[in-house]
Design brief:
This protein is mainly beta. It contains no helices and 10 strands. The strands form 2 sheets. It has a 6-stranded mixed β-sheet with strand order 2-10-9-4-5-6, with no helix packed on it.
Length: 123
């Protein structure tokens, strides 16, 4: 059974940083691409970033390019999202899931989701 547990969210001032973690279980992370999505209040969930199974390719939505990085540690079974230079518009609940990290990766429906972690960027 796939389990995904996100953590690391919190309240941060604009310009600050957070590092999100997603601990995985029920599957072998080595063989799976992973992605991060977020959902702001009153908005649809949107793809933020993904990383291929072997970690050689990453993708980012335009609004976070140059500010966010994604990584995965297969031994720790954990996926990370490092978020720097945070802006109020980054506020939302962040989720991780297994994805197809290719063209259109953020348009597909994925079956497994964790509970998410809340990120609030506010002064």
């Amino acid at each position: 059974q796939v389990q995904l547990v996100e953590s690391g969210g919190g309240l941060v001032q604009p310009g600050g940083s957070l590092k999100l973690s997603c601990v995985t279980s029920g599957f072998t992370l080595d063989y799976y691409a992973m992605g991060w999505f977020r959902q702001a209040p009153g908005k649809e969930r949107e793809g933020v970033s993904c990383i291929t199974a072997d970690g050689t390719d990453t993708r980012f939505t335009d609004s976070v390019k140059g500010r966010f990085t994604i990584s995965k540690d297969n031994l720790k079974k954990t996926v990370y999202l490092q978020m720097n230079s945070l802006k109020p518009e980054d506020t939302g609940v962040y989720y991780c899931t297994t994805v197809f990290c290719g063209d259109g990766w953020d348009t597909f429906d994925y079956p497994d989701w964790g509970q998410g972690t809340q990120v609030t960027v506010s002064s």
